[in-house]
Predict the 3D structure of the following.
Amino acid sequence: MSTPAIKSQPVYAELEWDRAGTHHILFVAAEDAALAQRLLSNPPAGTITLIHLGSTSAEARSCWSQGLPDSALYLETHSLAEALEVLRDALYVAQMGTRIYLAGPEDAVWQASRVADGFGVGRDEVRYAQLGSKARPVFCVHCRTITRGVHTNIVSCSGCGRSLFVRDHFSRRLGAYMGFQIDAEVPGEVPAAEVVYP
Amino acid sequence: MSSASLNVEIRRIRELAPGIREFSLSRTDGEDFPVYSGGSHIVLSLPLGDRPHRNPYSLLGDPTVRDTWRVAVRKQEESRGGSRWLHEQAREGMRIDISAPVNLFPLIRTGRRHILVAGGIGITPILSQARELARLGADFEVHYAYRGPEYGVFSDELEALAPGRVHHYVQSRREQIEFGSLLAGRPLGTHFYICGPAGMVAASMNAGKSLGWPESHLHSEQFLAPTGGEPFDVKLALSGKAFTVPSDLSLLEAIEQQGVDAPYLCRGGACGQCELEVLGAEGELIHHDLYLSADERASGKKIMPCVSRLKGGCLTLNL
């Protein structure tokens, strides 16, 4: 478990099934063979729907499709937009008793979380896991554009071009970290960016 | 006193059913009441001789009606005087003090559907919640259970609010809410609210949990009346007082009678506001509240003085 530098930064507990649930929707946007094996070798009672965001290349079957119980529904998708649409459809027909598991890079996880919010689910119905890339979605406080896939501590805003410092302050509603202009006091004085979110 | 009080006049008393009276209240200073949210309650201060007697009652009227508030009171057979006073002594034109509204039973506005369940006089907060949901245009339904046809006292108001969405269960006709089927197969984002007798609330919560409903979607409200009990001694460590709690007063009432300002809100074991730290207890703490967790009870360090007592010798509190 990571230690948050700031209160708003999400802390991700080890992903476990919530066995009080009667239906389980697993949204996974990264490969993690060890986690897949651990979860799927000891599945909960009730039905499972697994929405998988795979790479576009026709690689071997995902680790998530192996060892799934026969009763599980496996839905393969090839873009985040498609995966979120499939999640929306699954939640639309879901009933009380459903538990939702969102696993992957933070950008995908928190966009999926917003979809779930739209269905009125509570904090105790959703579990999160950070897998794969640590790249951050960064919300520009000046022009409100979200720049995605940021690996560095300073990034050029994709909306207004300002050099943004990437803070640890995180918004669950926006699903993004806060970025603000680093050279507002002395224009042009921008330190070299370092890769800190691999 | 914990919250600001308002002086009101009893403008109108209606007999709704055997043992159920409705009171309409207006401010004596002629001002409007504040707006409240569905599920709110107020605490009535009742003039029962020399001792303070305060009972919580849910507001059941339309929150947008600012000149009149309404509460309904069922006469409790085991009454220590509060509901009996309201049924036997209260007259139109009398003045009493009430607290500002507090809501321990609010609607969850992000819900996609709302199931409201009332048992008997538990209809009162459900009625104001139904009004709020109707005004919001939300998707909701009401399930109203009562002893006999004459006890369905707010059926007409409910039907007017939610035509076709009110389901009646009359006990004398052997009709009963089957919570397992009521809660099964509900869409994601549904919220459940119940106010009624303890057994009914427990049955619904158990049904919900066994169907996988998370706690954040199961809402209930119950107010307990202090039951009285054996007298016991109390020492207040900070104010230096020592006294005996008689059998017909709650611990909170006895503290107030000593002139010590203790916090409180609901006075019914529900809200947790009156929690006091126990420094020592010679005897067994008798917890009646709905607030403390099993671990907190086991620790023996906390007590809710509005409904709980000590059986045995002396209780020392950090107050």
